Amino acid sequence: MNNEGKCIEYYFDSKTFTKEQLIRNIEEAKQEFPNKKVEPNLFLNEWGVYILKIHFTDKIEYVGNFKEKRKNKKVLLLTERNRKISEKRTSFLNRKYGQYKPTKEYRPL
Q1: How far is CA 74 from CA 70, 71, 79, 84, in A?
Q2: CA-wise closest residue to 53 among 41, 65, 45
């Protein structure tokens, strides 16, 4: 079975159709499916026939992309949080017992 998803193919003769007419046909094909995400692909094959392939993005793939972006965002937030915690930990471990924080400020008694 083909894993490309749903696809519609239109065939046009290159002798009867011009490039502008084909672009107009692409726009009409997009308007036929207003609620779908459409990727048109137009090419000329070896026999002189224009082939217009319209791929529809699969709903599972579309949702999977959102999940992947969300997962990447969570990972970035966690790594940033872990970096801040490790910086605090190293600054805490570098202190010596009885050492005061240097203020470099003179205060009279």
Answers
A1: 6, 5, 9, 16
A2: 41
Burial class (CB in 10 A: 0-12, 13-18, 19+), 54: buried
Whether this prediction's pTM lies above 0.70 is answered by no
- Residues of the chain whose pLDDT is less than 70? 1-5, 58-62, 92-93, 95-101, 109
Which CA distances in Å does 68 have to 38, 39, 79, 96, 101?
A: 21, 21, 17, 45, 45
17/49 Cα distance (integer angstroms)? 10
Residue type, 98: G
pLDDT score of 86: 79
Q: What is the pLDDT of the chain when averaged over all its residues?
A: 77
